[in-house]
Amino acid sequence: MGAPEGFERKEVIYRIGTFLLLVGVGLLIFFFISEAAKQVTFNYLCWGLILIVIGFVLRSQLKRSVNPSGRFSLVRKMMPKAKKEAQGKK
């Protein structure tokens, strides 16, 4: 009766944060549309900002490890040599 295989709590929280961000942005868009229609609804603005902040907080809980793509591997190989030479001259 435990968690399913491959289930990570932080991954679910990250996805909920993404969902809240999207809903918050949608509410902000509704606010701007209501403002353009001259029927300003500040509830959209308030809830949109609150959901965006909560979404960012939830998304920051998970730090994803990024695998290097190898795209600039030649440049990376050359960079440590330049740093070592600069340190040797000091």
Key words describing this protein structure:
90 residues, mainly alpha, 3 helices
Task: Give a structural overview.
The protein is flat. Helices cover 70% and strands 0% of the residues. It has one domain. It contains three helices and no strands. By secondary structure, the protein is mostly helical. The longest helix has 28 residues, at 9-36. The model has no long low-confidence stretch (mean pLDDT 82). It has helices spanning 9-36, 42-59, 73-89. Helix 1 (9-36) runs antiparallel to helix 2.
| Residue fraction in strands | under 5%
Please count the helical segments.
3
Instruction: Give the distance, in angstroms, between the N- and C-terminal Cα atoms.
Output: 62 Å
**What is the averaged pLDDT score?**
82
Tell me the series of helices and strands, N- to C-terminal.
HHH
Overall form: flat
What structural category arises from helix and sheet content?
A: mainly alpha
How are the SSEs placed, and which strands pair?
Elements: H1 9-36, H2 42-59, H3 73-89
How would you briefly describe this protein structure?
The protein has 90 residues and is mostly helical.
